[in-house]
Amino acid sequence: MAVAIRLSRGGAKKRPYYRIVVADSRAARDGKYLEQIGTYNPMLPKDSGERVKLNEDRARHWLSVGATPSDRVHRFLDAAGILERAPKNNPKKGEPGEAAKERAEEKAAKIAEAEEAKKAAEEEAKAPAEEAAAEEAPAEESAETASEDASEGKGE
Description:
The chain has helices at 56-65, 71-80, 98-155; strands at residues 3-12, 15-24, 35-40, 52-54, 68-69. By secondary structure, it is of the alpha+beta class.
């Protein structure tokens, strides 16, 4: 008979409370179990000592007999120092999905276009100022020559 150390749910709706039980792996989650070896109350803060209560002697006994713990119970056993648990690594877990990647690319493209438009507007603002300065100088010269021509005409 395959034996598992796992959680059996109790408590009210949206107020979970779990028993840490040793049960036949084929039995229902909340069904018949061989022995209760602890409790787990996820509603309590993580640093609370009352969150996980575990009978370590019985847990060691069932592990020596060949019981396999579920992932969550394995974490509890590791925290208690009973059973070593290798850390898991899922590098794809933090990656955004396809749609999020597309949205990020579109946003980056819009930002790049806005920056290019801003640079172009700045260059256009500088260019007319230079052209206006260049146009003002000949206009001043032509005004001076016109006044000289007028004064020469009067002198005759």
